[in-house]
Fold this sequence. Notes:
four-stranded antiparallel beta sheet; 33 strands
Amino acid sequence: MSTLRIALDGDAALYTQADEAFTCFHLDPPSLTVEEHHLDGKEDAWQVALPDGASSWTLTDVLAARTETGSTCYLLTVQDADEAVLLIRAARGAAVRVHSPLNPGEVVHWADAADVVVLREDQGPWPPLLHAEPFSTTVRPFSTTGARGTTINGSPHRATWLDGTAHQALIAGNVPEKPSLAVWDLVSGGLRDLGHAPVSDARFFLDTPDHALLITTRQGIDRAHRLDLTRNAVTEIPTPGSGRLQMRTTAPHGIGLHGLSTTGGTRTWWIGPDGDAQQCPGAVPPDPDLPPITHTWLGTHTSPDTHTLPGAVPALIHNPPAHPTSPPTSHPTSAVISLHGGPESLERDELRWDGLYRHLLHDDTLVIALNYTGSTGYGAEHLRAPWRRWSKSFAADLASCLALTRERGIPPHRTALLGGSFGGSLALLGCVLEPSLAGAVASAPMADIVRQAARAGEASPHYPAWFAERYSLTAATPAERAFDPAHLTTTTPRQRITILHGENDEVTSYQDSAALVARALAKKLPWTLLSDASGHTPDTAATARLRHDRTLQSLRETLALDGRSRPLGP
Length: 570
């Protein structure tokens, strides 16, 4: 086996999927030099002349695309001396073209055949706006910005960009309430809704662009489908053992997926244009001792898949392994209710918390991964139900969880909450709502909703309306505001609370968490703050290990576990 060493220098480097090559760009006026290093060992380089004024350009981004003849071209984003943004289209053997964008945003696609560039405008908490604009005056613009979104077919529209070809694009519309798949015609601006909600990702097959690979999420499990765009027909592609599927690369001979699962570990899938699936094991092996997870509705419901009556909340149930002398149904001795961030996100079967669930399960701890009311993936009603009434809504969710733990013989004082980001805020709130819980471990929580909303509003004008719609910022009392320091620090002396927070967190405030813990300690409550040098999430392998170990140890101390769990990998 031989290795190929590729020097990635220059002003930018890019992996070009269609050519399976690493490409380096050297902006050295009066020329642009492009060096291509192919995975098969071949190397190539070419130059194009740059126009006058290029000596002041700074390269900030680069995107690969295909020309009308099928060769590769590149769209470079540069800033000039006045910090104005320019787009540079460069291809071998052709003069460069320069374009000043009509709309703000990051370039996500260049359709050479349609002479259209697509830009994605960040809208803070709202789904982004997509602008498709002509690269020259020969194409009439069809995309304009309204008060709430890009006009497509005459209607305000927000969407998440997924993938594009020479003439059309795949987008997920109506995010996050119903992220259904649609085909956007980049020439006419027409939109064709295909359905297939809720979609999490989709890519065209390079050599057969009338087919695409589609990932949908249902009941916490991702599923892969081969989509025939002509007939809008889907065929499911079996990917056993993979809970979450992440699209990693696209090549002429297929699309590569990375699969992650608490029980199944990691593995790589390669899906060919005909839908043929091949797999190979990943770095994290399966855990054969763990039972398969189950998706269920906790509380009152009419069927396993609906919740038309109050009190039902969906969850993924992770059961500990059964002991050799016990019946097939295991008997856990403690429980952790895990709360995802967001709130507009969802819990899926993957290696959550860097595989933390495995350790807990081998400690005979039941893990309830809750898609609390307010999560995505279960429709608009489930998403919007807790807005401005989080305490009442989450109290009902907790009651449904504790009904299950009691059925399994686990009392509340042997049950802890685990949450990250907004889930950490809910974990703190949950201990106030249910004083009989053992405690909580909260990673990077939002500790003060009023201060959080104020900071977000200073950063972007899009945030005030978003926060006001979801939270009771102007309520008269701390209890009505719910995520208020005075309210969150009304836990009992019997509850152990641990907050982990990176000192360089750019999303939630480490200072707010420090002030919250200081307030609790002044009341002689058993609260602990554990800090590290990371941001909102760990940014190095060492910090990730530190955060993982601290989280696990804090849960074990809260639940008085003896730490019998085995390591994640070999």
